[in-house]
Structure formats: structure tokens, C-alpha cells
Write a structure and sequence with these properties.
The chain has 307 residues and is α/β, with parallel strands linked by helices. The chain is built from eight helices and eleven strands. It folds into two domains: 207 residues, Rossmann fold (3-Layer(aba) Sandwich), CATH 3.40.50; 63 residues, no CATH class. α1 runs parallel beside α7 and α6 packs antiparallel against α8.
Length: 307
């Protein structure tokens, strides 16, 4: 099948992308702007045909993408047109897709909802890879809230995108085990492998006409909402030391749960059971270095190595 991918430069995009590209015809690669960014970057489109293509002229607004890891290099490797997508250029996505005529669009990561006129362009629609067992943890922060609720089995869902947020019918789902203390990067890598397998199965079934879509059940699960970096979410008086440690290991990219000392950036190290005279949630220092205090012990802080 002819496939367009929309995602970001992370494991949850890269592993499914590699798996699908081996089995199907990748015809385009779209990079979604970070959710926290406003429309500070515009459209870029490139193709193997040369630096100034018909597609680039159609798409027009070729503003510079932020200087960071990007899918653009992969688009050049696969010799497919590249588009940087933000809130301001969704109409350009429609032009891009009509030009490429994909059978399906696969979406590991997308920072905005899309209108029906865009979703209906591919004959098989848009397939989202969501890192939870929908309808649980629907919304933009499923990784975070699965750590918050101390889940030991995370999940991946492949579903068709509709005009809602994570509400479309489900094609495939699978859980995967996350040991206590697993950092979110490792959890993402495991989820990405599961997502790659599920997505390939879903595409094969769509192509063969054997796919079965099932509507999501009615539910009252809360939305996996975005959090503020300074939200007081750790339950220091209720959670035991291992649960606090696990939560901090999984959510540090999004939450400053303590006032980290100078000299970072810091990584959450191992924990130690034992008496601790410091107030829970404060940062102390002993002859072994910095630590986060808890009534049941200490959580070590390590300096994160560059790169």
C-alpha cells in the first residue's frame, strides 16, 4: 500500500516507520510540530526530484524548521517528500496528500486534530498509534498518567482517526509489561516495538479486506491531560518509596516534582530504604551525593551524561 507517515523524531515513530517501510511503499513523511510550540515554523517540502519541486511550489510557505532532530533526514534517505506540519498549515497537508494519493496515513504522533475533509483523503483513512489501551488514557499524555496510576501493564492501540480525540474505532490492541522503575525512554522503546507489529498487522488486514473495526465502548475514564511542570502531583504522605521512585523515573521529562539542585541536568537514580531525617520531597546531600528525601528512605540523583 501507499503510505504517508506523520510523527516526530522519537522511538514511537521511528520503529513503526522502519517496519512499515520494509513492507509497503512509503510515499511521504510529515513531521508534527511539538505540542508546546505555537506556529513558529511553517511548511517545508522536498523531494528527490531536486531542491525546488512542483510540490514545494504548490505548498508555498517554506519557512525554516526549528534546529533540532528531525524526520527530514529520513525523508531524504527514503527519497520521499517532507512536510513540517504545525497548526497554521493544515490546508497544506490536504494539498500534500492529494498530490501523493496515499492509501492510508499512519500517525504515531500528531499535535492537533484534523478536519474531516483531510481525514477522508486516503481511501483507508488515518490510523493512529496510541500508547495506551483505549479508551483508558485517551488524550495527549498517556505515558505520564500510566506512570501516575502505577500501571504495570501499559498498552498500544491502533485505531482509525475520526474528528474526536482518540475516539475512533479500534483495529488492534496489545498490552506490554513495564517493570517498576523503568524510565520512560525504555518504556517508549518497548511500546514502539509493539506498535510496529500491530500497525503492520492492521495494514495487512486492511489491504486484504479482513480488517475488523470495533467502536470504542462508552466509558467514564478521565482524559490523560497535559500537566504543568510545577504541579504538586506526588502523594508524598500516601505513596511508598518505590511508587514515588517509579513515578519520578517515568515522568521527569514533563514534571519538576522537586526543586533540583544546581549542577544538573539530573537523572533519577536508585532508591535506598532506611531512615531519613529530611522532609519528604526535599533535596538533601550526604557523603554519597544528592538525594530526594522520603519518609522511607532516599532516592539518589545522578548527573545526566551529555548526549
Amino acid at each position: 500500500m501507499r503510505v504517508v507517515f506523520i510523527g516526530k523524531h522519537n522511538h514511537f515513530t521511528l520503529a513503526p516507520l522502519a517496519a512499515v517501510a520494509e513492507r509497503h511503499e512509503l510515499v511521504g513523511l510529515v513531521e508534527s510540530a511539538k505540542r508546546v510550540r505555537r506556529a513558529t515554523a511553517g511548511t517545508q517540502a522536498r523531494s528527490a526530484a531536486g531542491p525546488v519541486t512542483l510540490l514545494a511550489r504548490i505548498l508555498g510557505r517554506a519557512r525554516r524548521r526549528p534546529a533540532e532532530k528531525s524526520l527530514e533526514t529520513l525523508a531524504e534517505k527514503f527519497a520521499v517528500p517532507y512536510l513540517f506540519l504545525d497548526r497554521g498549515n493544515v490546508p497544506d497537508l490536504a494539498v500534500y496528500l492529494r498530490r501523493l494519493c496515499p492509501d492510508v496515513v499512519c500517525v504515531p504522533s500528531l499535535s492537533q486534530l484534523l478536519p474531516a475533509e483531510v481525514l477522508n483523503i486516503p481511501r483507508f483513512g488515518f490510523l493512529n498509534l496510541h500508547p495506551s489501551l483505549l479508551p483508558k488514557y485517551h488524550g495527549p499524555f498517556p505515558w505520564f498518567w500510566q506512570y501516575y496510576h502505577y500501571e504495570q501493564f501499559f498498552g498500544v492501540t491502533v485505531h482509525r482517526i475520526d474528528e474526536g480525540q482518540d475516539t475512533g474505532p479500534i483495529l488492534k490492541q496489545a498490552p506490554f509489561f513495564v517493570e517498576r522503575g523503568t524510565e520512560v525512554g525504555e518504556a517508549e522503546r518497548r511500546g514502539a516495538d509493539v506498535a510496529a507489529n500491530l500497525l503492520c498487522e492492521a495494514l495487512n488486514e486492511l489491504e486484504s479486506g479482513t480488517a475488523r473495526l470495533r467502536p470504542q465502548p462508552r466509558h467514564d475514564f478521565p482524559k490523560a491531560r497535559i500537566v504543568r511542570r510545577d504541579e504538586p502531583l506526588v502523594q508524598w504522605d500516601e505513596w511508598d518509596l518505590q511508587r514515588v521512585w517509579h513515578f519520578l523515573r517515568g515522568t521527569q521529562p514533563w514534571l519538576d516534582a522537586v526543586a533540583y539542585p544546581p549542577g544538573g541536568p539530573w537523572r533519577i537514580g536508585p532508591y535506598e530504604l532506611g531512615a531519613c531525617g529530611e522532609q519528604s520531597g526535599t533535596v538533601g546531600r550526604d557523603d554519597q551525593g544528592n538525594f530526594i528525601a522520603h519518609r522511607q528512605g532516599k532516592i539518589r540523583l545522578w548527573r545526566r551524561q551529555a548526549g
